[in-house]
């Protein structure tokens, strides 16, 4: 009797878990097509405040104007049957890039409520998240099964890229705002209107070897690199950074660290890389790694030139710096490479419009501290570019593919030339130029980027 | 002279050890002083390994359980501290919600986005004020640790007290999965960095080029050392400690002396979770708080615990710190120009280091590894001889064909996933179910076949390529079986888990072998010139194809089905054959088997090889399924999950393997949960883990064995009833006779 009752309790527990599974965590975002309420610009936000809000709109009129000018949409609130776009992102495990979804959600809200969607019809994102290899295959199958989906947007992903791209190849074009793995770089039916991680990583290598000597007034003979031990990190170091630096006559020492490395493990890796003696230290790690690097450099009292990627941006870094008494949003003195413009520096109308839209979306939908930096901006930019193609009449897969191939820019918040297939090594990468900025105290300063017209094109620099 | 030296070494172990360590450091210093710096700056990592190891030793000494979930328990408590300290919230674990019984049937008839969403339990309780003070947050988190310890003892491990080692191992694996999913669901996927705790700041400068020792890391080492000393004193000088040691040696003797092994086990569980939680909180500021980093520290922690013979707290700390310092040294050497990075991936070698430590420890101390003197040990799951095989095989095949050709792409894919998982579960049935050898490396073994097939045999025709790949896996399996000749039970589980990490890091992530892409491509299988790969949905055979043109190709599923049928029949025949009986004899009692003339070593090697061959075929099918093989898919975590679901299905029968395939991640059951019951995938693993623990406690034969157990209980009940009736009638007749 007692055993039977125990089994009964156990059974009820399982059913209960099923129950809690069904009714929990449904997410807190409001429907994208909901009409915008009249609100003021968020207090303390970093939205550009060059103009007063237009009437009761939650976003600046200038942001709407820039958006309409880019997409060619009719403006206003879109209505009718939605046009679907597949969206896949790595979330729910480690590593994860939920910020890309912030870019997409903000984009859908902005496009549908202010830019008139696609010819007056709203767009709808069909989400699919991956954490492991088989999820990429599953997402691709779901997108293929939905006839309404004509294109697929990828936020950022490390796992499942190959099955996703192989399954969708020649069926539905894939747009990659943040390509980070080799299957993405080599994909033949995928399009990245950014330089991707190869462009940024190569650009930073060129910057370290050719620009740092001039800016810092010191010779750069050696670079110490600490990189994440994952496919993206390994390729970034072995195939993209090391050969370039060595070709430019710089000695390179690279040490891989686990994706999950904290300050303790990072200190060991930094010491092993010889960062204390190197002219430049180049961490190629995700944001948690960046925080670990910052702490480790402080502990080890290593003061050298640090160049790194925009993966270090984000609320966790800001919170961490605040908790240790630093005034800036990023570590003082570090150089950062990105896609040309920077979230922290106003002046690019498209990026300013994005930040305005993202913060307004967050306020409208009750999202606190939206992570609108990192991969979010390029994802927003690529989504709005897909909408631009659609407004130009490219509604089906074939037309979208043709539009992508013919696209030469200008790209939303992008810099330099664009040409799909223009990169002989990585055919999916259609962008080439990157920008470098530096954190100087509490200021984020343009060094060589779209703001001062000195964006770095690593392919051209190396060819020259 | 030689004898007196040996006697001196034996008497002065500690002194000799210290002198040896100093000598090693002196040699390293003379060679290149800079190489010592990364070693000293990694002692914090060593303290974490030692912390997890202390919990492992404590739990083993107290209850005889080697807790593979101790790393995740450490981080579990630290997360609760984070919630209280940083967010001012007390997180509530996912609780059963009875309203689901209304939601599920209603949502069955509703479209996505219009689901009924009834109230649920709160996920958090707001604490007074924005944030709690450090002391208050720590105290509440430690209360959580105590409650967790009590729950683990009373709800899970007390009922398993007399269960076989296998049941205890898979339960801790299930616990690992469940706690990890709890954390993911409640705290999200992003790591929490810089969790506040007032650790000492700054560093101590070491002389010369020895580098520095951060004060916070040193503090952690001191805390771990103090706790180890405290535990040593507790076990040496207190009545509680002596009683625990007595129970560990001989439970029956302890009972006779008036000690309750249950009480002792419970107290040790609480002590273990309390210490794990405390060290997790202290470590949180200097490491990332996430669901992977600290949980995976279990591998080096097991190495440290093994070096300490699962008994010495002091040696556990020394070994943990030593392993971390060795990792720092390897990392430094890996950055030097002479290091063969192409052949030996530095990061991989660092992570695989515990494997080598464990192997050395096993071989040096194999004979003296402690075995707990339990009152009784439960039986392994019943491995019934299969009956009506043809009928079941035909019925299952028809069912699979209907799913492949009559249903949509998601059912086709989940059917294929089920078939692949069935193959890998079959390998565990042979190895674990029939021979009783616990392997936590089966996915790694499967991966070797996939990687080798892709790298060296991709141009061979199908099915020769996968078969040769599987033979390579069989060789790996046979190599792994070498330690199994001396080891069994939980020790074997430990070494296979560390082997899984080593294979993942040194083989799958080896750039020379697996390239720099992070994945090796796998060409689709061709039969008679036709592409049977999963993406060729236009393939028609006998004018038959899948219901739609969305991958996967139904005929690829048929290929998988043929493999499954052949392998199932092969395992059935093995079970029925003399070999199968030898397997079961070895499982039952190795000494008795040897006395009966069975070559135990040969039998074990054969089982490992056969199981690896089957797993290898599963690995190649998986490669065909994705068009590539990746290290992540065949990683150590995957091996744990596979064993968990194989046990859930039924570890000792072919039907259990089939059911394991059905309930495996992304299998038919997952598709049912997601698409019919609308339960998110993120909960499916949690449900699987909970199911596994319940199965281990209530029904060790898994889902497949449940009907037999129910029937057996009915028979037992009937026999008891009959015996009682006979006794009563005898009593009555005797009463009548006496009157």
Would you mind describing this structure in some detail?
The complex is a heterodimer of chains A (464) and B (739). The N terminus of chain A is likely disordered. Chain A has a seven-stranded mixed sheet with strand order 7-6-8-9-10-11-12, with helices on both faces. A five-stranded parallel sheet of chain A has the order 2-1-3-4-5, sandwiched between helices. Chain A contains 15 helices and twelve strands. Chain A has two domains: 194 residues, Rossmann fold; 171 residues, Rossmann fold (3-Layer(aba) Sandwich). In chain A, strand 8, helix 10 and strand 9 form a beta-alpha-beta unit. With 464 residues, chain A is of the alpha/beta class. Chain B is mainly alpha-helical and 739 residues long. Chain B has two domains: 294 residues, no CATH class; 246 residues, no CATH class. Chain B is 68% helix and 3% strand. In chain B, the strands form four sheets. In chain B, strands 1-2 form a two-stranded antiparallel ribbon. In chain B, strands 3-4 form a two-stranded antiparallel sheet. A two-stranded antiparallel ribbon of chain B has the order 5-8. In chain B, helix 18 crosses helix 28. The mean pLDDT of chain B is 86. The interface between A and B is large, with 82 and 97 residues.
Short note summarizing the structure:
The complex is a heterodimer of chains A (464) and B (739). Chain A has 464 residues and is of the alpha/beta class.
